[in-house]
Design a protein that fits this description.
Elements (H helix, E strand, L loop, with lengths): L4 E5 L5 E5 L7 E3 L2 H15 L3 E4 L5 E5 L11
Parallel strand pairs: 1-4
Antiparallel strand pairs: 1-2, 2-3, 4-5
């Protein structure tokens, strides 16, 4: 299974897009919106979940792409 995509604040007022559980490099963006747009596109392509973190580091938004967790709930 491919790793979920995380959009999170990085140092120097930049934003990072990271792929969970892979050796892919973290990609940095100058704005939050650029990072979110890139993360959404990558999550759609890979059919994984996008998790957007706030400045406090906590997940503030989740977006599922290609997976329906309700199908696994019995």
């Amino acid at each position: 299974m491919k790793g979920d995509i995380h959009v999170m604040p990085a140092t120097g007022k930049r934003w990072a897009v990271d792929v969970e559980s892979t050796e892919q490099s973290v990609v940095f963006y100058d704005t939050e919106q650029e990072a979110i747009d890139a993360g959404k596109a990558k999550a759609r392509r890979n059919q994984v979940e996008l998790l957007i973190h706030g400045l406090d580091g906590r997940v503030r938004e989740r977006d599922m792409h290609g997976r329906n967790p309700r199908k696994n709930w019995g």
